[in-house]
Design brief:
The protein is α/β, with parallel strands linked by helices and 447 residues long. The chain is 48% helix and 17% strand. The mean pLDDT is 88. The protein binds zinc ion.
């Protein structure tokens, strides 16, 4: 029995002492092999025993069919000459973890591929504990990586994203060539970006050819100083994002107007309250309300790329098109025209398309779009340079959206290191391994 358990749970360097059933869980008493015990969890050196914990500690292991399984062991503390008094390391789990190594690897694989609710339901753990698991798994993968992750990085994108309703910031760096995340850290500004540049060797910094970022000038000056060979260009993703924001602004304005018109068309009655019983809504008021609802419902169809629209979303856009003189539809057309600039085959074509767009946008009489036009005009050369260097919008958008989704997933985590762990596992080229399997199959590449 003990041999079967040791095999099923892949316990190495471990002695299985006892097995019992408690409630619907299987509890397995274990201890490390003599020469694998009493080791410092940080440096792995064999140390003197300090004391032994009075009660056993337990680790959640992979489920045995339908029952949960725990390993139990009374840990000792060791005195390491370098690291002080610490709980000894055990062969089946990582330092400070309450789960076995296999269990953590499995949860990390789930977190990379599933939604938060699916992970918690499958693994029967709280979502915030997944954060700690991601951090530990990522730290180990990063330490085991043989080649330097910044080697051969030529084109990078720097971005700052806010989360927790703008209370916290995260600086992320993506590699445009590989289309993946390479660095993430809490906070924003010069100090944080310097942390990233400090991690690069002199050769790696000199090897960087292109840096994309949003409009911030300080990034430009810092990059110029520390990466002498880099060309600074505008990030296409941000330019399109400005237009998305403007489009949403126009939609909200139109919705307010339509809502007010619908309300005014309702028959007036004395005093506040709902319409009286038996009172009919006049057909023109109903029609106006439908218009208002249609504008409200078109929100996601507007910002989605036309090639990804669902049939229902396409219908909504078409109904918008039919209404004569729709400001919202004009703004949408301008958004698509701006996106087309980044799909241009050459710098000349991009410059021509951008000039045409600037002209159209300047005369469209839609205030939010005109504001974007002014911003774009100031950075015209940087935008054309991005197209010339082949930094398209597609890949950048794909990785940015993935980062956004992941940041949203990590909302419930206790600290930012947990979030960074999840981000790196999901968006970088670092892959957690399913326990006992060679490697996770490669995921479909972002377009
Ligand atoms: Zn030590």
């Amino acid at each position: 029995m003990n041999r079967i358990l040791r095999y099923a749970l892949a316990l190495t360097h471990t002695v299985v002492g006892s097995v019992r059933i408690e409630g619907d869980a299987v509890i397995i008493g274990v201890r490390p092999w003599k020469r694998h015990g009493l080791r410092c969890p940080v440096c792995g050196r064999r140390c003197e025993c300090y004391d032994r914990s009075p009660s056993p500690r337990s680790w959640r292991a992979m489920d045995l069919a339908r029952s949960m399984c725990f390993l139990e062991y009374r840990t000792r503390r060791v005195v390491c000459p370098d690291h002080g008094v610490l709980v000894e390391s055990v062969p089946w789990a990582r330092h400070k973890a309450r789960f076995t190594r296999d269990f953590e690897d499995w949860v990390a694989c789930l977190a990379v591929r599933c939604t938060a609710s699916a992970v918690t339901e499958l693994a029967r753990i709280e979502w915030h504990t997944v954060g700690g698991i991601c951090e530990r798994v990522y730290a180990e993968l990063e330490a085991a990586r043989r080649c330097d992750r910044f080697d051969g990085v030529r084109r990078i994108g720097i971005d700052e994203t806010s989360y927790k309703k703008g209370h916290k910031y995260l600086t992320v760096v993506v590699d445009h060539n590989r289309g993946c995340l390479i660095w993430a850290h809490e906070g924003y500004g010069k100090a944080v970006l310097n942390l990233f540049l400090d991690e690069l060797t002199r050769e790696q910094r000199r090897g960087i050819e292109v840096v994309t970022a949003d409009g911030a000038r300080w990034i430009r000056s810092l990059v110029k100083r520390r990466c002498p060979n880099a060309k600074w260009v505008m990030d296409p993703f941000h330019v399109v994002q400005w237009m998305h924001d403007a489009l949403d602004g126009v939609r909200r304005e139109e919705w307010q107007v339509a809502k007010k018109a619908a309300r005014d068309a309702m028959p007036k009655h004395d005093g506040p309250g709902r319409p009286r019983k038996g009172e009919e809504t006049p057909p023109e008021a109903r029609a106006l309300k439908e218009v208002a609802d249609a504008i409200k419902g078109v929100r996601f169809a507007l910002v989605k790329n036309p090639e990804n629209l669902t049939v229902a979303q396409r219908d909504k856009l078409d109904s918008l098109k039919k209404r004569a003189g729709s400001r919202l539809f004009r703004a949408w057309e301008l958004k698509e025209d701006l996106r087309a600039v980044f799909k241009a085959g050459s710098a000349e074509e991009a410059a021509r398309l951008l000039d045409a767009w600037l002209h159209d946008a300047a005369y469209c009489k839609i205030k939010p779009v005109v504001d974007v036009e002014k911003k774009v005009r100031r950075r015209k050369d940087d935008i054309v340079a991005a197209v010339e260097l082949g930094i398209g919008n597609g890949r950048v958008e794909a990785i940015n959206n993935k980062i956004k989704v992941t940041v949203k997933m990590g909302y419930g985590f206790r600290n930012t290191d947990n979030l960074v762990g999840l981000l790196m596992l999901r968006c970088s080229d670092c892959r957690p391994r399913l326990p006992g399997r060679p490697e996770m199959p490669a995921r479909k590449k972002a377009a």
